[in-house]
Amino acid sequence: MPAIRPTNPHARRLRREATGVERKLWSALRNRQLENHKFRFQATIGTFVVDFLCVEKRLVVELDGSQHR
């Protein structure tokens, strides 16, 4: 797995402009609410920004929506 880098401005903007579905899932994942696993929202991995990341489980969750036309 590539090194996780500090938040970039693009990821910061994506968090500010999150879709309703992203916000809803984030409210269920944040603060270790899902079986005590830590998730990151709009995390940077290499040159990519992923919607949700759980490092300890090596899990990336991407939500597709109308923004991906």
Describe the structure concisely.
The chain has two helices and three strands, in the order H-H-E-E-E. With 69 residues, it is α+β, with helices and mostly antiparallel strands.
Percent strand equals 15-25%
Instruction: Tell me the structural class.
Output: alpha+beta
The SSE order reads: HHEEE
Main β-sheet description: 3 strands, antiparallel
Distance between the termini: 28 Å
Query: How many helix segments?
Result: 2
Description of the structure:
The mean pLDDT is 86. The N and C termini lie far apart (28 Å). The protein is α+β, with helices and mostly antiparallel strands. The chain has one domain (9-63). 26% of the residues lie in helices and 23% in strands.
Note the main attributes of this structure.
endonuclease activity, 2 helices, nuclease, hydrolase, DUF559, Restrct_endonuc-II-like, single chain, alpha+beta, 23% strand
Question: Layout of helices and strands, plus pairs?
Answer:
Blueprint lengths: L8 H8 L3 H10 L10 E6 L2 E7 L4 E3 L8
Antiparallel strand pairs: 1-2, 2-3
Organism: Sphingomonas leidyi
Pfam families: DUF559 (PF04480)
Protein name: Very-short-patch-repair endonuclease
